[in-house]
Amino acid sequence: MSQKTIAILGATGVQGGSVVQALLKDKSWKIRGITRDTSKDAAKALEKQGVELVSANIDDEQSLVKAFEGVQAIFAVTNFWEHFFRVSTASESRDKEVEQGNMFLPTVRPLNIAPRQDVYLEKEALTLRTSSGIKIATAASKTASLQHYVWSSLPSGEKTSGGKFPVPHCDSKAIIDEHILNKMPELAKKTTFLWVGFYASNLTYFPMCKANAGKYIWIQPCAANATLTMAGDVSVNVGLYVSAILRNPSVSLPAKYTVVVTENISVADTLKTWTEVTGKEAEYVEVSPEKFDRLYPRAGGELAAGLKWEETVRDWRDLKEGIVSGKDLGVDEGKLVGLKGFLEGMKGMLTAGGPAE
Question: Radius of gyration over alpha carbons of the chain, in Å?
């Protein structure tokens, strides 16, 4: 059987890299890694593993069209946070990720959980410029050989909460979903929408703080009983899901949604698992979103929005009808790395008192 070719965006990143590593084990696929800088060490390491490297910019549609030539599958992902730290507000980052030329989108409105009045969305229409997410989808739609488009998305906080909890880093992805479904019907038929749950690695970016007598505290802007749809170790699990999606198009197409999830776990039980792994005593401390934003300037307000939304959601798989389960896709659940497995692998860094990276 001749090999098919998959183009993987963000091949040196967490999600894209996960897909690369999973498909390197599947000889039916030739991998084309798409990255902006093919001279970086991470890119060169992939090349040594047999990955074809192609340079393209997700904000340059023509470079994407060229990079996608002749491929049968595409894994696509955008990074809200890359835009976030280059612009002045969360809403502007959302717009950069979502912007596209012929679609009216919500703009910004203040909510009482936001310390900055321009973090959230308002139902006031305006036309925005073309964004990376739409450009990627447009380039994919121009790829005559394409059979399967896997788009890494997220559920809309704003829509699933009836407008109460806009979450720009989630809402931006969902708006791109709508564009594909409503404006690109032929691409939609070839698309699997992949929601990636809460990264276990977030516990290393926002670690426990050491208090007196060796006790640790975990400061978060949500109730301890908020439930997280946990994706576990994303560097492993995304690739396992995408591999299964590609193996089973009769299940994953057309226009099907699935969720990378290893467990649904409360914030309190997340801390309990951390304690079990580290052997350290820990206490949960809830603070207001405003205080959390002061603790973690810029990112804090946006992350608080997501966690306040999580207080209202028990399981992402209940947010949309017809979600395809990992079991239905044939995901090898024995290979998935859940929260505890991830923490055990990172044990030496969990009590370091600072971010892992």
Answer: 20
In this structure, the strands spanning 121-127 and 104-108 are antiparallel
Closest CA to 75 of 193, 173, 174, 170: 193
CB of 109 closer than 8 Å to CB of 150: no
- Per residue in 217-265, pLDDT (tens digit) is 999 999 999 999 999 999 999 999 999 999 999 999 999 999 999 999 9
Give the whole-angstrom CA distance, residue 186 versus residue 193: 15
pLDDT in tens, 14-39: 999 999 999 999 999 999 999 999 99
Query: Does the model's pTM come out above 0.85?
Result: yes
Instruction: Tell which residue, 156, 166, 94, has the closest CA to residue 131.
Output: 94
HSE-CB for 228 with a 13 A CA cutoff = 26
Q: In what order do the strands lie in the sheet with 73-76?
A: 52-55, 29-35, 4-9, 73-76, 148-153, 191-196, 256-260
**Residue 348 CB: number of other CB atoms within 10 A?**
9
If 0-12 CB within 10 Å is exposed, 13-18 middle and 19+ buried, where does residue 10 land?
Answer: buried
Contact status, residue 149 vs residue 159, Cβ threshold 8 Å: no
H runs (alpha helix) in 68-156: 80-84, 90-98, 132-141
Q: Write the single-letter amino acid at 40.
A: K
List alpha helices for 161-282, DSSP H: 168-183, 185-189, 202-205, 234-247, 249-252, 267-278
Q: What separation in angstroms does the CA of 71 have from each of 22, 65, 188?
A: 18, 11, 17
From residue 213, give the alpha-carbon distance in Å to each of 26, 74, 199, 216, 354: 50, 52, 30, 9, 18
Which residues, other chains included, contact 302 with Cβ-Cβ below 8 Å and sequence gap of 6+? Answer: 84, 90, 119, 167, 168, 169
pLDDT value, residue 115:
39
| pLDDT value of residue 90 | 53
Can you list the residues of the chain whose pLDDT is less than 50? 87-88, 99-130, 353-357
Could you give phi then psi for residue 323, rounded to 5 degrees?
Answer: -65, 135
Residue whose entry in the numeric block shows the structure tokens 């946990």? 230
Phi, psi of 146 (to 5 degrees): -65, 130
